[in-house]
Amino acid sequence: MIQLRNIKKAYKTEFTSLQVLKGIDLIIEEGEFVSIMGSSGSGKSTLLNILGILDDYDEGTYTLAGELMKNLSEKQAAYYRNRFIGFVFQSFNLLNFKTAVENVALPLYYQKVNRDQRLEKAMHYLEMVGLKDWSDHHPNQLSGGQQQRVAIARAMVTEPKVLLADEPTGALDSTTSHEVMNLFQEIHQNGKTVVLVTHEQDIAEKTERIINIQDGLILNSNE
Fold it and tell me: FRET label pair with 18: which of 44, 68, 135, 191, CA 20 to 30 Å apart?
């Protein structure tokens, strides 16, 4: 599903160049549930952004479902993101002026799905995450855990091949974190590939494989 070969990435300014990824080799098979761990500045978020086609890389190759992701136009990148990838963020990234069901339906709007179909599908995914009865609530009327569930439903509504999660439990208490991780495990058991960035060992241990990254290189990949 995901294959990285010698991926390098530097952030350049007029006077300096910071090498963030120094040659990443990684294979993630379809249907795997993996976590990427590393301290702040290790390169894990940059790696996730490259996987999510939010950022380009300088050297190497990245193939997603057999397609080479390199030098894409913004239109091409958006096409592959819409087709293959769902995102879940630490800060939820919900729109406060929209209800839960409207937030979940939003990606389908960009795919030009008609309104009735959008809302029907969004309700289905809200039910999947246990929030059907909260569909008409706005984000500020929901707890942190509920907001993250809405965000997960929104990521799933386009039926992506890969779900990418950047510190999805970082803003949650421990009990809610484990509830959210149980939801990720259910999604994985339904056949999705899930890649999760975290700095929390107990969260990483709920995945099938832990990939440790340090100073822009993969240290090991533990089953």
Answer: 68
pLDDT in tens, 118-159: 999 999 999 989 999 999 999 999 999 999 999 999 999 999
The residue to which tokens 């929030």 are assigned? 131
pTM for the whole structure: 0.90
Reduced 3-state DSSP string for 168-207:
CCCCCCHHHHHHHHHHHHHHHHCCCEEEEEECCHHHHCCC
For residue 176, count CB atoms less than 10 angstroms from its CB and return exposed for 0-12, middle for 13-18, buried for 19 or more.
Answer: middle
Tell me if 9 is assigned to some domain: no
> What CATH number should be reported for the domain holding residue 218?
3.40.50.300
> Side chain identity at 168, as an amino acid letter?
P
136 is a domain residue: yes
Model confidence over 148-189: pLDDT tens digits?
999 999 999 999 999 999 998 888 888 888 888 999 999 999
Residue 15 forms part of a structural domain: no
